[in-house]
Structures are given as C-alpha cells and as structure tokens.
Amino acid sequence: MKQYTEMTKAELLEEREKVQAHYDALKAQGLSLNMARGKPSKQQLDMVSDILDVLRPDSDFNSDGIDARNYGNLEGLPACRKLFADLLGVKPENIFVGGSASLQMMYDTIAKCYTHGRVNSDKPWARLDKVKWLCPAPGYDRHFTISESFGMEMITVPMTSEGPDMDVVEELIRDEDVRGMWCVPKYSNPDGIIYSAETIRRIASMKPAAKDFLLMWDNAYIVHEFFGDYVPFPDILSECAKYGNADMVFEFASTSKITFPGAGVSVFACSEHNMEYTKKLLNAQVISYDKVNQLRHVRYFKDKDGVLAKMKLHASILGPKFRCVLDNLDREIAPLGIAHWEKPNGGYFVSVNTMPGIARATWQLCKEAGLTMTGAGATFPYGKDPQDSNMRVAPSLPPIEQLEQAMDIYCSSMKLAALNKLLAE
Ligand SMILES: Cc1ncc(COP(=O)(O)O)c(C=O)c1O
User: Fold this and answer.
1) Percent of the chain having pLDDT more than 70?
2) Domain identity same for 208 and 340
C-alpha cells in the first residue's frame, strides 16, 4: 500500500471512494460506542468488588489502636499511610491520606496557594498580578481545567519521548511569574511515557526564579502496567530534597484505577515542612477523612505486593484491549503514513498524532458514525492544539468486541479525513 502523501490525485479519489463506502456501511449500523474517558470496565470493577465484603458490622474496626469509624487522625490511618508510602517509595510521615479523589486534592492544594500562599510565599497568589503555569502537552485535560479555573496563564511545554522538554522548562522558569508545573511522570496522560532518569534529575534540581514554585507531580499511574512487569520508579521527594528543593513538590496518587474511581482512597506526599503547614490549613476544613474506606483498602491489599498482584489482574483485562487498539493502528494506519503514536506499557491511553489539520475532522466523522472520542484539542491548554493533530484513545471501557468496531470507525474516519484534506489541497 502506498502512503497517502505519495498517491496521485486519481489514486486518492479511488481510495476515497473505497474508504467512504466502508465508512457509510459502518455508519448505517447506528452504533453507539465510547472511547472518550479512561474509565475501568465493568469487568475490572467486578473483579475488585469483593473489597466491599472486607468490613461487616461485626468486624474489628481497630487499626493500631484507632477506631476507624470515629473522628481523628486527620492525616489518615497509620496503616494506610504505610501502604501508600511503600507504593510511592517515601516515608509514612510524608503521606497524607485524603478523600476519594486525588484531583480534588490537587485543586485544593492550588486553591490554598491562592488563599493562603505556600510555606515560602511572600503573599497569597490571589494578590499576585499574574500566575503563569507550565503545561507539558499533550497532557491531562483536567489539570488544564484546574489551571484555567484559577485564571492562570498556561504555557505549553512540548513533550518528548523522555518527558517535558527540559531545555524549554529551564528557560521558562527564569520568569518569576511562572509559579508551577503539571507532571504525570509515569505513563503520562495521554502519551504513556515514563519520564527518563535524566528528566527527573533536571526537574528535581530546577532553580526557578519564583521561590514558591509548585511542582505538581501527579503519579496517577504509578503501578498501572498493562504489558510486562511492574517498573520501579524513583521517589521525587528525596530527589528534590537532594537538590535543596524538598518543599517544591507535592506528589499525588489514588486507588481510582486500582479499586473504584470516585470511591477509592487518594493521597498526597510532601516534605515535613509542607505537611505541617498544609495540615494546619486542612484542620479548618475537615475533622477527618473516610478512615473506614482507608481500613477497607488496607485489609483488602495488606501491602504493596497485594496491590501489585491485583494490578496484574487488571492488566489481564486491559492488555488485550490495548493490543487491539495498537494492532488496528499498525495494520490500518501505519502503512498510510497519516499518523504516528506511542506504544505504552501502562496507563490508560494511546496518544495518536495524526498528520496536521485532521484531528477535529476525524473526531467529527467518528461522532457522526456513533463513536464518541475525547475532544480533539482537549489534551492542550485552552483546548487548542496548534497542529490539530493529537487524539487521545481510551480503550479501557468498552468490551473487546465493541472495541474492534470502534477502531474500525476510528481508522476509517481518520483515513477519510486525511483523504479529504489531501484532495482539497
Ligand atoms: C493523570 C490523572 N490524574 C488524576 C486522575 C483522576 O484521579 P482521581 O480519580 O484520583 O481524582 C486521572 C484520571 O483519569 C488522571 O488520568
């Protein structure tokens, strides 16, 4: 098969007729499919639902002498702090166990910067004329939504295969208005990239002009391999401390994609100094979080090995779905030269970069044929992808038979969008 860009006009027209006929046949089936959000499937949720049997009315609710059902221990049950400390490779005293969503804690961490300032701020950020924020992109749309909701000026930093382009970052942080940066360091959303050791070293050793610079280290996919074994990952807290930056970073994680999204346990990890300061602020906000759920998670998993064993079972469901997406792309799209993509071993997404200028058109064609995809542009600040190229594919939710149909629609839509563009030029 010739690449599309090498075809003559007559060949393009002939190919379009073929692709259009296939697309029309798919559309006529009136399907309703969804590859938009990284949600675990019903099968995955069923697999962990026995966590609900762990605690019963006659259970022992004591953990280290603490009755999990009562107020107290704002920072979380010691056993739960220990579990997450082992997962993140930090000390239990660096862990704060919060509610059921890490995103809410991220929002709250930034909100506190605006209302109260950071440990080392001169004044709350609400009193600053301007707050600029570094957004490696493609990135997680909800991070960008948080930044936008606070009126930050978002600055796009290109992603490389090793993480954010650090030459660009090191230049930008010389501006004192640049107060922070989003990072998803392991199986980044959406690229599925693992930041390299050198990128991590350069991030941990940054010397930003803003002394209250905040590194938001969202380790949402720390144990989320779907191909191969668990890959150990460096602890950012000690990395930052090594370079005198202990207070620069807040790390986040949750069990949203280990147990239940919206009903799991989330944490942040930070320096002792940050912990003391943040706890004082949180004390005005909440008496204690849901320690019953924390206890449920501790009893269910017991330890890090227990979590990793469960992640192997998630992988046995997710792996074939990612294989399906990647095989379809390799077979249908790769020979045409109209897109390239990462081949992740973990996380929840495949990030596809189409030839410039066809992501929105592809999305629209998918929609018209009954397939909902993440909005084109969503992976960039302000929803604006300058190349109109990046598309996030989320294969986890649909059963595999539906995924085959969805990929058929997706690949046909992309081909059609590419042919239309090339023929219009
Ligand atoms: C990078 C990243 N962070 C955070 C979240 C949400 O986490 P939580 O459910 O703990 O709020 C997601 C969900 O897709 C994500 O991809």
Assistant:
1) 100
2) no
Question: What band does 331 get if pLDDT is binned at 50, 70 and 90?
Answer: very high
Residues 288 and 353 both lie in one domain = no
SS percent in the chain: helix, strand, coil, step 5: 45, 15, 40
Q: What separation in Å is there between the alpha carbon of 240 and the centre of ligand 1?
A: 23
Same domain, 183 and 223: yes
- Rounded Cα–Cα distance for residues 369 and 420 (Å): 17
| Residues near ligand 1 (Cβ within 6 A) | 38, 101-103, 140, 184, 189, 218, 220, 254, 256, 261, 266
Residues 223 and 324 in one domain: no
Domain shared by 11 and 131, yes or no: no
Q: Residue 103 corresponds to which tokens in the numbers above?
A: 């995103």
Percent of the chain exceeding pLDDT 90 equals 100
Q: What pLDDT is attached to residue 37?
A: 87
Question: What is the C-alpha separation between 83 and 306, in angstroms, rounded?
Answer: 10
| Residues of the domain holding 353 | 4-45+308-424
Among the atoms of ligand 1, which is closest to the Cα of residue 262?
A: 9
The SS3 call for residue 260 is coil
pTM, to two decimals: 0.97
Q: What is the mean pLDDT of residues 219-228?
A: 98
pLDDT of residue 350: 97
Instruction: Output the pLDDT for position 1.
Output: 81
**Token digits for 174?**
């010389």
Question: Domain end: 285, 302, 319, which one?
Answer: 302
Task: Copy the structure tokens of residue 194.
Answer: 């693992």
- For residue 250, the CA-to-ligand 1 centroid distance in Å is 15
Beta bridge partners of 352: 341, 391
Residue nearest to atom 12 of ligand 1 (CA): 220
Both 207 and 262 in one domain: the answer is yes
Where is the domain boundary, 260, 275, 302?
Answer: 302
d(CA 187, CA 164): 13
In a domain, 55, yes or no: no
